[in-house]
Design goal:
Length: 279
């Protein structure tokens, strides 16, 4: 059977590595502090033995990989964005830890079978055009008896950042255009997330829900940095000439509800972990 070829035009902004190259600094400053809380939960679920060989697939700016290296593990971090990989190397050097960071497609890993003791991906593999293939590749490179942990978004209605932005846009535009479900929400339901593990040839995963908060110094600070990821940048551009007005309304809503100082906006994710069965 001939497989359809995925082109860039078929992909969402968050699925295009070159677009991520343009968001490294903002992502690290604004969003990694939120995802890092999910990373810590994933690392605890992974529970790697001391000095484990750990792969971080779609590592972004390296939050999880840096924490694993700080704990003494032998860490390899891969990402399809060359700029993200470069930033991970910079941060590892500044921290005085060793990370092997490589630019690589997580859907086609270049590592031999069973070359890691554990692997994780924090809101990374779930964005891949072929998430099942990405998870299957993690299974392939982790030895039997090793562990895999995966994080995906859930309960989008509880994601306060997007909820507040949508409410602001609605107040300005009067109505919002219908949009298809983004790829990052494909596995928001527990059964769909569990089905991903089954499709990748893995046993049933232990899944827990984790709530974390995006902290910002102020609504004004956050409003100036909303384009922290390709998808967010595209969403803002989709407001057209009303973009600045929507952002101003977003800031005004947050200031009215939470004041002009430090704010926290909640988000929920599933953290799943599984042991790789013998082949």
């Amino acid at each position: 059977m001939t497989q359809a070829v995925t082109t860039t035009s078929d992909l969402e902004p968050d699925q295009q590595p070159l677009r991520w190259d343009q968001h490294v600094a903002l992502y690290e400053d604004v969003f990694e502090p939120l995802t890092q809380r999910f990373s810590l939960a994933a690392i605890e679920a992974l529970a790697p033995e001391p000095r484990s060989r750990v792969l971080d697939s779609a590592a972004g700016t390296g939050g999880a990989a840096l924490e694993l290296a700080r704990r003494g593990h032998q860490v390899t971090a891969i990402d399809a964005s060359a700029a993200m990989v470069a930033r991970t190397r910079e941060r590892a050097s500044a921290m005085g830890v060793v990370i092997e960071a490589q630019t690589m497609d997580g859907q086609s890993l270049s590592f031999p079978d069973a070359s890691f003791d554990a692997a994780l991906s924090v809101i990374g593999v779930i964005l891949f055009p072929d998430a099942m293939r990405g998870l299957s590749e993690m299974r392939r490179v982790v030895r039997p008896g090793g562990r895999i942990a995966l994080v995906t978004w859930t309960a989008p209605e509880s994601y306060e950042l997007v909820g507040e932005l949508r409410a602001a846009a609605l107040s300005v535009l009067g109505a919002l255009p219908a949009r298809p479900l983004p790829a990052q929400l494909r596995f928001r339901e527990r059964e769909d997330f569990q089905a991903l593990f089954a499709a990748a040839g893995l046993p049933a995963a232990a899944i827990s829900q984790v709530t974390a908060e995006l902290d910002a110094p102020s609504p004004a600070w956050l409003s100036e940095r909303l384009a922290f990821a390709p998808g967010m940048a595209a969403l803002l551009e989709g407001f057209g000439p009303a973009k600045a007005e929507v952002i101003a309304a977003f800031r005004k809503r947050l200031e009215a509800q939470r004041g002009t100082g430090r704010i926290s906006l909640a988000g929920c994710a599933y953290v799943a972990s599984v042991t790789v069965a013998p082949r």
